[in-house]
Amino acid sequence: MANGTQAIVFIGAVERNRTSDLLITNQLLYRLSYNGVYALIRHGPVPARYKAAANFMVLVYKKQTGFPFAGPCLSFPLFIHRVTTMRVTNRFVAFAIHLGVSLLMFLVLAAIIKFVWYPGVLFDVEGGWDGIKLIAGVDLIIGPTLTLMVYNIAKKELKRDLAIIGLLQAAYIVGGMTVVGSNRPVAVVYAAGMFFTMTNVRLEMAKIDVENVPLLNQPKPARINIKLPENKDERSKALTHWVLTAGGLDIATPLYSPFTDALKTMPTDGSSIEQAESFGYMVPEQLKNDPTIRVFELQTRYGLYRVATNITTGEIVSILKKNPQAENSKDEGRTNAEQSNQRNQNE
Known about the structure:
Blueprint: H1 26-31, H2 36-41, H3 48-65, H4 71-86, H5 91-117, H6 122-125, H7 128-150, H8 158-182, E1 185-191, E2 194-199, H9 200-205, E3 222-226, H10 232-246, E4 256-258, H11 260-265, H12 273-278, E5 281-282, H13 285-288, E6 293-300, E7 303-310, E8 316-322, H14 324-346
Parallel strand pairs: 1-3, 2-6
Antiparallel strand pairs: 1-2, 3-4, 5-8, 6-7, 7-8
Helix pairs in contact: 3-4, 3-8, 4-5, 4-8, 5-7, 7-8
């Protein structure tokens, strides 16, 4: 300016909550009544201390989960820095921001669980939904709720409190992902005409060292075949040993062979679509006329399932459910038979 003074332009009213220009409408006046826009523009880069905290969380996350993507851990220091520099005065706004960040993290972690750790039908038969619910609880509820409870812009210890909340939420997420990861299926084993799922917990209980089993060192979940002896007596002896003594065919590591060996016997193993329907199972229409589909049993830690499988690739394509009408008629038939037996006994 001519007199040597320097003009400073602020976005929004900094020192007063009204403007002398009466032509401004109430709506615009409301929008200009805060200096938060100016603070939002001037927040600048993330300080080094927040970057150090993020790097530490990344190391812990990778070590505990074994998954290379560690983006969720970067969000906590970013959230703390952005909220404190934006000068959010309303705790509900801070809660909404934290919830939004947590939602983004949840979507990333849910995608890891659904498409990487529990792919295909394994998500439904091995507790994938339980993992999703666990992560949703620790991510979407704990962190944002604590922020709503403690947030107060006037507190000198606000950054410290938010940092503690961020670290606590990160610890819960790492712990939750560790639990989900330890129970995920690391292998699908085919043996004696049926499938078995094997989890990390199962490997640890059986004291199996993955490093000493090359077929387990595949992209998870690995697909493995159990090659039983062709001799009838030796086959019976092997089944007796591994099923009754050792604890299960799925941990018979000396009998492991490439999954391609299973494809040679699948065309004659299992049951046909017609047989499955006669047992009361509902088969999707698109699979009924497919000659490459046969039905096999799938044993998981949650129970026994019937699954439609492509015998040329070994891929499990669908879980077959029981027809409720078939179940009812079966129960009625059993009831009638019991009544008949009772009448015969009375006579």
